[in-house]
Amino acid sequence: MRKLIEYNHLSIDGRFSGDDFWAGQMKVAPNDNQFAYQLQLLSSAVGLVLGRVTYEGFAGTWPTMTGDLADKINSLPKHVASTTLTETTWNAEVLPGDAVDAVAQLKDSGDGTLVKYGNGPFSRALVEAGLLDELHLSISPFVAGSGESMLSGIRTTAMELTGVTEIGNGAVVLTYTPSR
């Protein structure tokens, strides 16, 4: 069975979007350690799982990027949750039918890791369905003060801290495993 890992960038106050978040994130731009961490995370990946908004943002930028991380991300199959997309590019396919059921089938279809980027309703649905195996949160050293909060609206879900990795510029990656 495949493992599903979600990776997200957050501010100290748990924000992942909005002008204040992106302004703060740009001040602590990713460094080589952050790229190395993601490359290690993707080392056993057999595909990416993305919501539509994340897919569209990634598909607009990653194909033009270079380097080991870009090569890995660009080469992986992408599985996109969307009810509105009719066409995809960038080695992607829209998940058929109910996206949560489709991810469950992807997990059951082999070995390796599926890495999910992005946050929002799809992330919440995957957590609530019990499909998420690990949550990797890259916490950047700033308070955004506004923007969307990660997993807001989700029912209480207990998680165990299973790893802490310092990645430079005052950032850490916290790894959590849902308690089952």
Question: Can you characterise this structure?
Answer:
This protein is α/β, with parallel strands linked by helices and 180 residues long. 31% of the residues lie in helices and 29% in strands. It has helices at residues 19-27, 32-41, 52-61, 68-75, 99-108, 121-128; strands at residues 3-11, 45-51, 78-81, 92-94, 113-117, 134-140, 159-168, 171-178. An eight-stranded mixed sheet has the order 4-3-2-5-1-6-8-7, sandwiched between helices. A hairpin with a 2-residue loop joins strand 7 (159-168) and strand 8 (171-178). The protein is globular and about 40 Å long. The two termini are 17 Å apart.
Compute the number of strand runs: 8
SS-based class:
alpha/beta
- Series of H and E elements: EHHEHHEEHEHEEE
Beta fraction of the residues?
25-35%
Helix content: 25-40%
Shape: globular
Mean pLDDT: 92
Gap between N and C termini, in Å? 17 Å
Strand order of the largest sheet: 4-3-2-5-1-6-8-7
Integer-rounded radius of gyration: 16 Å
Number of helical regions: 6
Biggest sheet layout:
8 strands, mixed
- Stretches where pLDDT falls below 50 for ≥5 residues? none
Keywords:
globular; 180 residues; 29% strand; alpha/beta
Write the layout of secondary structure elements.
Elements: E1 3-11, H1 19-27, H2 32-41, E2 45-51, H3 52-61, H4 68-75, E3 78-81, E4 92-94, H5 99-108, E5 113-117, H6 121-128, E6 134-140, E7 159-168, E8 171-178
Parallel strand pairs: 1-5, 1-6, 2-3, 2-5, 3-4
Antiparallel strand pairs: 6-8, 7-8
